[in-house]
Design goal:
Chains A, B: GO terms for molecular function: DNA binding. The structure is a homodimer of 166-residue chains. The first copy, chain A, has 8 helices and 2 strands; from the N terminus they run H-H-H-H-E-H-H-E-H-H. Chain A is mainly α and 166 residues long. Chain A has a single domain, classed as Putative cytoplasmic protein (Orthogonal Bundle). The first copy, chain A, has a two-stranded parallel ribbon. In chain A, helix 4 crosses helix 6.
C-alpha cells in the first residue's frame, strides 16, 4: 500500500477490520485512545501520518508473511503429494507472548498473527490447492506431547504437535 | 476456499473478521442467532455445513469481484497514464439498498461491499500501482451534482460524482 496517499475515514475502518482488531486494540498498538480511533473512523479528524504508516506497515508485514510462508509450503510439496497441513496459532496473548516472541515487534497482537494465518490458509488453498488448518496451541497438551516424545520446545516441535491435531 | 474441509472455531472467527462483520451481522446473514455464532467461534459447537458454505461463498464472491474489478481497471489504464481512481462505497445499509440493489443477493451487507472495495484498493496498488480511493456516496451531494450536470442516476454517474471528490 502507498505511504504517500492518505487514508480516509472508511479506509481506516476497513484497514482495522481487515486485521480483525477492535478499536481498543488499534488504539493500543498506535499509542493513542479509543476516542481518537473513533474520530478517524467517523471522519471527524484525520489519522496522523505516522499512525497510517504504522498500520500500513503491519499490513505489508502480514502480506510478506503470507508470501514467504506460501512459498515455503510450495517448496515442501514439490516432491511430496499434497496433503493437509497444520499451522500453529496462539489462542491468547499470553500464550503468543510466551511461544512466539520473535513476532512481537512486527505483529504485536495474537490477532494480527491469526490474520496472517487466515490469509495463508486462503492463499495455500487458492494457489497450491493445499488445505491448511489453523491449530490453536494448547499449552498443556503440547507440554505433555513433548514429554512423551522427548522433544525440546521449538517451532518444529509445535508444528509436530499441531500435525497430531488434524 | 475448500467446501469439503470444515472450518474450526478460530477459522470461523477469522473468516467473520476478514469480512469486517460483527457477530450479530453474521447471525443475520446466516439466519441464526448471536448465541449460535459465539458458540461456533468458541468451539462449543461446530458451524453447520450450509453456514460454512454460505460464508465461504461470500468470500469467493468478494475475491471474484476483486479480480474482475482489478482486471477492468488494468484494461482502463492500458493506454492512459496511471492516475488516482475513485471507487464508490455506501455509508449506510439504506443507501446501499437504494443505489446498489444488484449486489444485495450476493453481498447483502454494505460492510461486505466495503470489504471487497478495500481488497480492490490493495490489489490495484500492489499489482497495477494505481491509487484507488474509497468514496462513500453522499446521496444529497450526488443528487445536486446530477441536477447541475443533467445526469440520470446510474453507476456511471456515481463514478463521475466520486471522481469530483478526489
Amino acid at each position: 500500500m502507498s505511504k504517500s496517499t492518505g487514508l480516509n475515514a472508511i479506509e481506516m475502518q476497513c484497514l482495522r477490520q481487515s486485521f480483525g482488531l477492535t478499536v481498543a486494540q488499534v488504539a493500543s498498538i498506535t499509542n493513542t485512545t479509543e476516542e481518537a480511533v473513533n474520530a478517524w473512523e467517523s471522519g471527524e479528524t484525520e489519522a496522523p501520518v505516522p499512525v497510517q504508516k504504522k498500520l500500513l506497515e503491519i499490513d505489508d508485514i502480514i502480506e510478506m508473511q503470507v508470501l514467504n510462508t506460501t512459498d515455503g509450503i510450495e517448496e515442501l510439496f514439490k516432491k511430496e503429494p499434497k496433503r493437509r497441513l497444520a499451522f500453529v496459532v496462539y489462542p491468547t496473548q499470553a500464550v503468543y507472548n510466551m511461544y512466539n516472541p520473535e513476532f512481537l515487534s512486527s505483529l504485536p497482537l495474537t490477532e494480527l498473527y491469526n490474520t496472517a494465518a487466515w490469509r495463508i490458509k486462503k492463499e495455500c488453498k487458492l494457489v497450491l490447492e493445499v488445505d491448511v488448518s489453523l491449530v490453536p496451541l494448547d499449552a498443556e497438551a503440547y507440554k505433555a506431547y513433548r514429554a512423551d516424545n522427548g522433544l525440546s520446545e521449538s517451532r518444529e516441535s509445535r508444528a509436530k504437535w499441531a500435525a497430531t491435531q488434524l
